[in-house]
Amino acid sequence: MFRWPAGRARRREPAQSLSRMMPTTHRPTLILLAPPEDQADASAPLRAADPDLAIVPVCDRGAVERAVRDHPRGRLLSVCSPVIVPASVLAALERPAYNVHPGPPIYPGLFPAVFALYDGVTTFGATLHEMAAEVDAGPIVATSEVDIPPDMDRLGLETLSRRLVLHLLRHCAEALVRTETPLARIDVPWAGPARRQADFDGLCRLPEDVDAAEFQRRLRAVGEGPRHALRLPRFGRWFRLEPAHPDTPVVKAGRVIS
Question: What is the pLDDT of residue 226?
Answer without folding.
Answer: 73
